[in-house]
Amino acid sequence: MAINNFLEADLEGKKVLARFDFNVPIKDGEIQDTTRIDFAMPTINALLEKNISKLIMMSHLGRPKGEIKKKLSLEPIARYIAEKLGVEVYLSETSTDAGIKTLLNLGHIKLILLENLRFNPEETKGDNEFARTLSTYGDVYINDAFGVSHRKHSSVFHITQYFSQKDRFSGLLLANEIKALDKLLNFPDKPFVCLIGGAKVEDKIKTIERLLIKADKLLIGGAMAYPFLKAKGIKVGKSLCSPKDVDLAKSLIARDKGKKIHLPIDHIVSESIESEASIIDNKNIDDALSGFDIGPKTIASYSEIINSAKTIFWNGPMGLFEIDQFSKGTNSIAEMLANSDAFTVVGGGDSVNAINKSGYSEKVSHISTGGGASLEYIENGTLPAIQNLKYNH
Ligand code: AMP
To answer: Atom of ligand 1 at shortest distance to CA of 321?
Structure first.
């Protein structure tokens, strides 16, 4: 199964319909973090160099739940792209309004941005007719929206059926994500070490199951660690730890025949988020206290394992890193990854925020733009919308 690379295609004079993930944080009409748009620029620039007739860009923003919400208009995004490229960007009224056909027929217009796809309830429901209408805007289709490719939404999943196999392509961002994640899953240089943190075992159970097969070592941190510790009879005090997560952790420990799972051996604790933090020098946490970060001995032992790794995957913070006094574990891991010679992949969400905050993002091999999407890719080795781009050759 293969996916077409648009760089090799003759797209001269074509109308190119491309789905991006421009779902950026916006406050008072100002974009707070442009990373997602910046990551799409290589594809946009490469297309413009190909002498296409028009680029029709699509994206969602936030969760308008099928209603037009001015606050979630793509207007600031149109402005940002126009400024960046020095080319005017025409924003449509809705993603299917009659004016789009007029814009498509105006010769001098190069860049069109369709208004927020999720203003139409059909987008998230997955609707063939909506997808077909969108498809009529382009001669060819490109998916560069990795962050939503695990969803069966109209603009990434249903739309592909309206383009012949030779007319659907992956964008450069999507291709890079696939390359990095396939390397992890199919031919990682060994030892392959995974760090999994975050809030709940339940959210990441399927990913952990898969990594237990693929990886050589699994280092657990964050609130995720307490159900594992409790399952082993260790006291976790008032730390986040649901009975369901303890059951899931028990089943994972039972399956871990290769003793791949590593757990924290000390903790940063406090009575509450606001109270002063202290170190507990062993695994057990007193009844009155909660664990909010991994301790220094754990950092040192994880560091040793990370230093000998040749491939590293990281998803989820090692503690409540949003609060300074509980951020050391997460920041230390970010620093270790940055200084490692291994092939390093940081998978989405809070771990990406943490690595950006620490200033080390340039030093990791690959930062995934999709948290949920990268975890689902690891679980299944593909994603629904990516599968739809593929063909037998
Ligand atoms: P996730 O989305 O599952 O990766 O979870 C990320 C969230 O888990 C972040 O908001 C962290 O602050 C939170 N978190 C990580 N460790 C802890 C902890 N020990 N106690 C409470 N929250 C935590």
So the answer is: 12
Type and span of the H or E element at 219: strand 217-220
Residues having CB within 6 Å of any atom of ligand 1:
198-200, 203, 222-223, 240, 291-292, 316-317, 319-322, 349-350
Last residue of some domain: 141, 173, 205?
173
CA triple 109-158-36, angle to 5 deg: 55
Place of tokens 């986040």: 240
Mutation test residue for ligand 1: of 289, 314, 320, the one with most atoms within 8 Å of CB: 320
When divided into structural domains, the chain yields a total of 2
pLDDT, the chain, mean: 95
- Ligand 1 center from residue 331 Cα (angstroms): 14
Catalytic choice (15, 250, 372, 390): 372
Residues 255 and 279 in one domain: yes
Annotation says 372 is catalytic: yes
Shared domain check, 242 and 146: no
Strand 267-270 and strand 278-280: pairing? antiparallel
Q: Which amino acid is present at 80?
A: Y
CATH code of residue 59: 3.40.50.1260
Look at residue 360 in the predicted model and tell me its pLDDT. 86
| Cβ neighbours around 182 below 10 Å, total | 13
Q: How far is the CA of 383 from the centre of ligand 1 (A)?
A: 26
- Residue at a domain's end among 140, 173, 206: 173
Its pTM stands at 0.92
pLDDT in tens, 6-53: 999 999 999 999 999 999 999 999 998 898 999 999 999 999 999 999
Residue 178 forms part of a structural domain: no
Residues 195 and 162 in one domain: no
36 is catalytic: yes
The answer to whether residue 349 is catalytic is yes
| Residue at 204: amino acid letter | K
Measured in Å, residue 320 CA sits from the centre of ligand 1 at 5
Between CA 25 and CA 61, with CA 323 as vertex, the angle to 5 degrees is 10
Give the separation between CA 44 and CA 88, rounded to whole angstroms: 14
241 and 161 within one domain: no
- The verdict on 58 and 155 lying in the same domain is yes
Burial class (CB in 10 A: 0-12, 13-18, 19+), 107: exposed
- Beta bridge partner(s), residue 217: 193
Nearest to 181 by CA among 356, 383, 387, 385: 383
Q: Is residue 89 very low, low, confident or very high in pLDDT (cuts 50, 70, 90)?
A: very high
